[in-house]
Amino acid sequence: MNVGIDLINFYIPKYYLNMNELAKLRGIDENKYSKGIGQNKMSIISPLEDIVTMAAEASYDIVKENKKYIDTILFATESSIDFSKAAGNYLHKILGLSPSVRILEFKQACYAATGALQLAADYVRSNPNKKVLVVSSDVAWYGFENAGESTQGAGAIAMLVSKDPKIAIVNKGEFVTDEISDFYRPSYQEVPTVDGKLSIKSYIKMLKLLDPQEKYIFTCFHMPFAKMADKANATLKYPISDEHLRIAKYFTSEVGNIYNGSLFLSLISVLTLSKIDLSNQSIGMFSYGSGAIGEFFSLKLSNQYEKYIDKEQFLRKLKDRIELTSEEYINFMKNYQIKETTHKLINYNKSLEVNRFIIDSIKSGQRTYKKIA
Ligand code: HMG
What we know:
Layout: E1 3-11, E2 15-18, H1 19-26, H2 30-36, E3 41-44, H3 51-66, E4 70-76, H4 87-94, E5 102-106, H5 112-126, E6 131-140, E7 153-163, E8 168-170, E9 174-177, E10 183-184, E11 193-194, H6 196-210, E12 219-221, H7 227-235, H8 242-255, H9 262-273, E13 282-289, E14 293-301, H10 311-319, E15 322-323, H11 326-342, E16 357-363, E17 366-371
Parallel strand pairs: 2-15, 4-5, 4-6, 12-13
Antiparallel strand pairs: 1-7, 1-8, 2-3, 6-7, 8-14, 9-14, 10-11, 13-14, 16-17
Helix pairs in contact: 1-2, 3-4, 6-7, 8-9, 9-10
The structure holds 3-hydroxy-3-methylglutaryl-coenzyme A.
């Protein structure tokens, strides 16, 4: 049976910081960010958003058409808003799904969305009439004035997993697990503890172990920053061409790290920007999550995938954004930190209602949400 991604969509916040602004703010040579880590912009979450609103934005259009078939939501995140209650409980309500839909939150750093996708595919193989919504939603927040600050971002991906998928068949992958202290955030910490050099070493080591013996026209990578894909591609026995690497990196270079969704943002970049028809072609996918797990798997694109990828709309999401000054960036991220650590919504401002879904209130640790468009 063919099982895989029937539909895919993504969301990135309306606000971004230009990396040259960050370089100026921190007194760093602009080339370090543009050339050294390959980033032009990073997405910044607004004070009225969280992982639930971002997940709702990414999922809404997909779910509208498929409500009666979805019986499971797997929500991958490492930016959780609660240690017990799953973010999917809120998402389930916003999306108006039936009480007979099961929801689960998945965690394994940036790998959880890949694990969720593979388990969703297995579930559909044994329940062929069901569809599973796999959602990833994360805010990559490292705090101010440290090495990780330039590799931040925020965003969500939604994928509907079904039999006879319209976009791509998901093939089973090869994976490797090890216990590594490269990046972790104990529950008492607001931001992760990161050993950047160790994390890059661990990523590359796992990719080397999983390096496929097959040549792919495109390989998509987990990209904490766009330049990571150059390092990854150079590791492969069969690297992709420079032009295809540029295409696989483009969306990340404009958005930054969105943790769990990063690999799939690279896929969206390829599906949107490829100059060649990829019908019936296989593409490689490398997922890495600190802590750590690596998985290499492949997708086989359908012969009609282009009909279900709204390239213009995808590019508009990158284009129609509002640039923040460095002062606004500091203000937004201070708001984020206060919201997520004290569970207080501060500085509610009507002018920030630029999204379809916003947080309406946070009271006693419980959130309510509002659809405004
Ligand atoms: P850093 O100390 O800011 O930068 O750390 P650096 O000194 O290593 O320089 C970075 C690159 O810029 C180097 O190139 C420099 O040569 C170059 P490379 O040697 O790598 O090819 N450079 C310049 N180039 C041009 N002009 C200049 C210039 N100056 C320097 N003037 C680091 C960078 C990415 C480590 C840091 O930002 C960090 O710790 N980020 C967070 C961790 C991370 O992203 N790790 C990646 C792998 S782990 C992973 O992917 C998992 C993750 O997503 C989490 C999860 O799984 O949940 C992070």
